[in-house]
Specification:
Blueprint (H helix, E strand, L loop, with lengths): L1 E2 L3 H6 L3 E5 L2 E6 L3 H10 L2 E4 L4 E6 L3 H8 L12 E7 L5 E11 L2 E6 L4 H15 L2 E4 L4 E7 L3 H5 L15 E6 L2 E7 L8 E7 L3 H12 L5 E3 L1 H11 L32 H10 L3 E8 L10 E3 L5 E10 L6 E8 L8 E6 L2 E8 L7
Parallel strand pairs: 1-3, 4-14
Antiparallel strand pairs: 2-3, 4-10, 5-8, 5-9, 6-7, 7-8, 10-13, 11-12, 12-13, 15-18, 15-20, 16-17, 16-19, 17-18, 19-20
Length: 361
């Protein structure tokens, strides 16, 4: 197990540390619901320094990224971020990622911690054709996600940049918490606004301390990975390993919006065909009609009790106080308003397919 740079800080704060994706990570501090509501109502800080960062540079950097990712990175201006995925050759997904355009010929790819080695090998294989300069910065950089509706106001005193002037999925490089050349990105996986701060491991403790000083009057709190999961699920954001993986296509997963067939990329022909012919199953969002908590792996069944799909993510929504989830069902059962059944132990609980997000501000 690897330790992130702030491991001892989290232990002193009383965090429950658990193994996650090869790292010891803080899963919760005071409790999932309290932490979840802190982010929805004010501001909280996640340490997600386990994430992977690859720097792609050189004249063929864009050509490589266009080949291995599904979205169209040629649309990115310097200062733009873009959600995308690495398709595999079997109609599945190697990983999902965020691509940042740092300079004219320089991009930062931020990948999931559990897939760092897999992703690196995948990109490297295709880079034999392009010869871009690839660097794995994962072990040298930390990442803090400062999330919530009060994030801008709480953090403004820490930077000379106008934080309110950074639109969603844009970023700036500048001073933050006394450190120069920090990436301040208006991204995050909570749906409640805020920033993600990329810095060197040697800088992260100073930034963490100053963030909590600046945010004290706004009720800022540290937030664990458990609340990160409930927050992203209320928004219907896919989690790799749950809702998407090597066996799920971006078309099935509702990620057609990041799959651009205006360019040639890995497996693009097969995915274009699948989109045209319509996939046999789709990822849907559902709310339980009765009390219960859906969990990953639970069966989705028909009226006769026969399995028709599976729950990929599920929880009791802290904001809705209802059981919510994502799961794959036959396309015929995927329309909004469709009635499905979730097998929870010995009882099939009725649920309604809904439009995302579950949580609306």
């Amino acid at each position: 197990m690897k330790n992130i740079a702030l491991h001892q800080v989290h232990e002193k704060l009383g965090a429950k540390m658990v193994p996650f994706a090869g790292f010891n990570m803080p899963v919760q501090y005071e409790g999932v619901t309290a932490e979840h509501l802190t982010v929805r109502e004010s501001v909280g800080v996640f340490d997600v320094s386990h994430m992977g960062e690859f720097l792609v540079s050189g004249e063929n950097a864009l050509a490589l990224i266009q080949k291995v990712t599904s979205n169209d990175a040629s649309k990115l201006e310097i200062g733009d971020a873009q959600y995308s995925c690495f398709p595999n050759t079997e109609n599945g997904i190697v990983d999902d990622l965020i691509c940042y355009r740092i300079k004219e010929d320089q991009y930062l790819l931020v990948v999931n911690a559990s897939n760092i080695e897999k992703d690196w090998n995948w990109i490297s294989k295709y880079n034999e054709e392009f010869g871009a300069d690839l660097r794995d910065l994962s072990d040298d950089y930390s990442l803090l996600a400062i999330q919530g509706p009060k994030a801008v106001e709480a953090m403004q005193s820490l930077s000379s940049l106008d934080l309110a002037d950074i639109p969603f999925y844009k970023f700036k490089v500048g001073d933050f918490a006394g450190i120069e050349h920090v990436i301040i990105s208006a991204t995050g996986y909570t749906g409640s606004g805020g920033f993600e701060i990329y810095c060197k491991n040697s800088e992260v403790e100073q930034i963490w301390n100053r963030v909590f000083l600046a945010g004290a009057e706004f009720g800022i709190k540290p937030i664990g990975l458990a609340a990160r999961d409930t927050l992203r699920l209320e928004m219907g954001y896919c989690l790799y390993g749950n809702d998407i993986d090597d066996t799920t296509s971006p078309i099935e997963a509702g990620l057609g919006w990041i799959t651009k067939f205006t360019k040639d990329f890995v497996n693009s022909e097969a995915l274009a065909k699948q989109k045209e012919e319509k996939p046999s199953r789709k990822l849907v969002a559902f709310i339980l009609n009765e009390r219960g908590i859906p969990r990953q792996g639970y069966d989705i069944v028909d009226d006769e009790g026969a399995k028709i799909g599976n729950v990929t993510s599920g929880t009791m929504s802290p904001n809705l106080s209802k059981g919510i989830g994502l799961g794959y069902v036959p396309t015929a059962s995927s329309k909004v308003g469709s009635q499905i059944l979730i097998q929870i132990r010995k009882k099939a609980i009725p649920a309604t397919v809904v439009k995302l997000p579950f949580y609306k501000k």
